[in-house]
Amino acid sequence: MLEMRPDCERCGADLPANAPGAFICSFECTFCVSCAEALDDRCPNCGGELMDRPTRAGKALAANPASAERRFRA
């Protein structure tokens, strides 16, 4: 199951699990739209392709909450 990380690893922007606008690689490195575009849709950590992260909402989100661990390091 996806962790649904709460922030962009590059700029720290909030990325709620129930909203579109997050991009992930196969290791779940997570970036916002702007950063994914700046990175040419390539993960700077593993070199993998960044893809749209699906959303999780309603009962699915309540039963399987998103991660609260932030990855952005200022």
Strand order of the largest sheet: 2-1-3
The backbone outline, from C-alpha atoms, is globular
Structural class: alpha+beta
Using the coordinates above, name the CATH class.
Alpha Beta
CATH fold naming: Herpes Virus-1
- The amount of beta strand, in percent, is 5-15%
| N-to-C SSE string, H for helix and E for strand | EEHEH
Question: Helical percent range?
Answer: 10-25%
Task: Count the beta strands.
Answer: 3
The CATH architecture would be 2-Layer Sandwich
Mean pLDDT: 96
Report the biggest beta sheet as strand number plus sense, adding barrel if it closes: 3 strands, antiparallel
Tally of individual domains? 1
Radius of gyration, Cα only, in angstroms? Answer: 12 Å
Distance between the termini: 28 Å
Low-confidence stretches: none
Secondary structure layout:
Elements: E1 22-24, E2 30-32, H1 33-38, E3 51-52, H2 58-63
Antiparallel strand pairs: 1-2, 1-3
Would you give an account of this structure?
- It comes from Sphingobium olei.
- This is DUF1272 domain-containing protein.
- The protein has a three-stranded antiparallel β-sheet with strand order 2-1-3.
- The protein has helices at 33-38, 58-63; strands at residues 22-24, 30-32, 51-52.
- It has a single domain (1-58), classed as 2-Layer Sandwich (Herpes Virus-1).
- The longest helix has 6 residues, at 33-38.
- The protein is globular and about 35 Å long.
- The protein has 74 residues and is of the alpha+beta class.
- The chain contains two helices and three strands.
- The termini are far apart.
- β1 and β2 (30-32) form a beta hairpin.
